[in-house]
UniProtKB/TrEMBL annotation:
It comes from the Bacteria. This is Uncharacterized protein.
Length: 264
């Protein structure tokens, strides 16, 4: 994967991409969906009202962290290259990759680990994509299957496979009544969250990016969603926490898909 900072290749700075921790890619956050901003629901005392109209859904930005290494011919050369690269990061407005270009600012610490006897520095340069742009959903819905989100077969349409569930059959806590007396009502129940650890399988990094970007868009479409799991009844859910995705290989992504259950 090649990268550019304001249309200047990393090679021009004498910089080389290195894998992010636990991943096989230099740019962590590339596949992530940012969380929703603002209030996402209201507790009426007897029920929870989710805010899922189009006007309610506003996304935060997301962090894209570039992991690189620099080697100098001498310590002075290393420091010259390092200063030039950090300066370019601080001034950066456009971060380019082979799968897309992103509007960013550099606002957090640029972390440098230096190995002076080898004239090498390892850098983590975080960028903030302040306006995440969802993809248009062009993948056609299959319309049937055991593992469904709305009319999409998640395995067939997105290459998504569940490895584990958390809290899938939990019963939420009761909604507490606003009274000074002993409150004995137990039938009014709140929401609960559950998550699925998923692997997404694709043909290559481009196919994975396309599938994940469109899945992220599906998660934030307005309205409640119907999620059907193998061996379980359908649940009404919505997604508010985003996704944090690990790039395991050129054909596999891993992430937790967390949702808030309104009933079921």
């Amino acid at each position: 994967m090649n990268y550019k900072i304001d249309n200047v290749s990393l090679r021009e700075f004498g910089v080389y991409p290195t894998n992010a921790s636990g991943e096989k890619i230099a740019l962590s956050g590339l596949f992530d969906l940012p969380k929703r901003k603002g209030t996402t629901e209201y507790d009426w005392g007897t029920s929870i009202e989710p805010f899922v109209d189009a006007s309610d859904i506003e996304l935060d930005g997301r962090s894209l962290t570039l992991n690189v290494a620099i080697k100098g011919s001498s310590l002075a050369d290393l420091h010259t290259k390092l200063a030039a690269f950090k300066g370019a990061c601080i001034a950066c407005k456009k971060l380019w990759t082979e799968v897309g270009e992103f509007d960013v600012i550099q606002k957090d610490e640029i972390a440098v680990t230096e190995y002076p006897f080898n004239c090498v520095a390892v850098i983590k340069a975080p960028f903030w994509e302040y306006s995440y742009v969802p993809a248009s959903i062009t993948i056609p819905a299959s319309g049937n299957g055991e593992y469904m989100l709305d009319s999409y077969n998640l395995a067939k349409d997105f290459g998504l496979h569940i490895t584990s569930f958390r809290n899938v059959n939990s019963t939420p806590k009761r909604v507490e009544g606003n009274t000074t007396l002993l409150y004995k009502e137990t039938s009014h129940r709140s929401y609960y969250d559950f998550s699925q650890q998923c692997n997404m399988v694709g043909n290559d990094i481009y196919d994975l990016y396309n599938k994940m970007h469109q899945l992220n868009s599906l998660l934030i479409t307005p309205g409640l969603h119907t999620l059907t799991l193998p061996g379980n009844t359908a649940r009404s859910v919505y997604f508010k926490d985003g996704t944090t995705v690990t790039y395991l290989s050129s054909r596999v992504l891993r992430f937790d898909l967390k949702c808030r259950v309104i009933n079921g």
